[in-house]
Design goal:
The chain is mainly alpha-helical and about 270 residues long.
């Protein structure tokens, strides 16, 4: 039903689902990638996955208990607000951040990622009730938008992280010169760790330089992931503003004011 799918209502619904799914990519591409960059293995992320699972189940349960067919845009706005809050919290991470430091922010993201599903489905099926033939078209549209949003989010965030890592890496490296006493001391301390393995001073110095380079790359990745988290928050906030404006516009246009019945003056004469 291409004409129905091309209507303004369904296009806005598809765009909203795609954008929200892009925001939810923060968990798979952002948080998990960040932890792996800090050499956290899957066995060390079990507790974080459990928190994500609890947040997802809580979001579904809350959505089922609180859904109101008359106010379907509000849950979407709340979901985006929660996910934006979690992303902003993650954007202040550093190389000492561990999975337990992300429990609350990832719970918010997991909660918001499922809290919007019920209202979205109700909103779509409400438009299907007028013509049941559109049910298959809506199911296909909803599935495509979910997959497309996830793929776009992963591709966008992954590319953005690489670009920002190169930027931060070049910015950090240009300030690392051996003429700087602090840099020289860091290289010497890094090489001294291999003193029992490398007897040649030049090899120890090379190992210290390599250790410093690895540390700079790690810090550049940390800064890049912080930028990724902030980008997700910006996308969530912009989507939230758009949906809020849409909700306000619908409220102003659908609010009907019944005209007061005209009553003749009490002292009017009758001919």
């Amino acid at each position: 039903m291409t004409r129905w799918l091309g209507s303004g209502t369904m296009i806005r619904l598809a765009l909203a689902v795609t954008l929200i799914r892009m925001v939810t990519s923060e968990q798979s591409t952002g948080a998990v990638g960040f932890m792996q960059n800090l050499n956290m293995g899957y066995e060390q992320l079990h507790s974080l996955y459990v928190v994500m699972l609890i947040g997802s189940v809580a979001g579904l349960a809350t959505s089922a208990l609180t859904i109101d067919p008359k106010h379907l845009l509000m849950p979407l706005i709340i979901s985006l607000a929660l996910m934006a809050t979690g992303s902003v919290m993650d954007s202040f991470s550093n190389n000492l951040t561990r999975p337990q430091n992300l429990y609350f922010s990832q719970f918010l993201l997991a909660f918001g990622s499922t809290f919007f599903l019920g209202p979205t489905m109700v909103f779509g099926t409400r438009n299907v009730l007028t013509n049941p033939r559109n049910l298959v078209s809506f199911s296909v549209l909803f599935g495509i938008c979910n997959n497309l949003g996830g793929l776009l989010g992963a591709a966008l965030l992954g590319t953005f992280q690489i670009v920002r890592e190169k930027f931060h890496s070049s910015h950090l490296v240009e300030h690392l010169t051996l003429s700087d006493p602090l840099v020289a001391a860091r290289v010497q301390s890094g090489g001294s760790a291999y003193g029992s393995l490398l007897a040649d001073p030049s090899l120890r110095n090379l190992a210290g330089i390599r250790s410093l380079s690895n540390a700079a790359t790690r810090e550049a990745n940390v800064l890049a992931y912080n930028d990724v988290f902030m980008l997700i928050a910006v996308i969530a906030v912009l989507t939230m503003i758009w949906l809020s404006i849409r909700a306000l516009w619908l409220m102003s246009t659908t609010k009907a004011v019944d005209p007061a019945p005209s009553v003749p003056p009490s002292g009017a004469s009758h001919s």
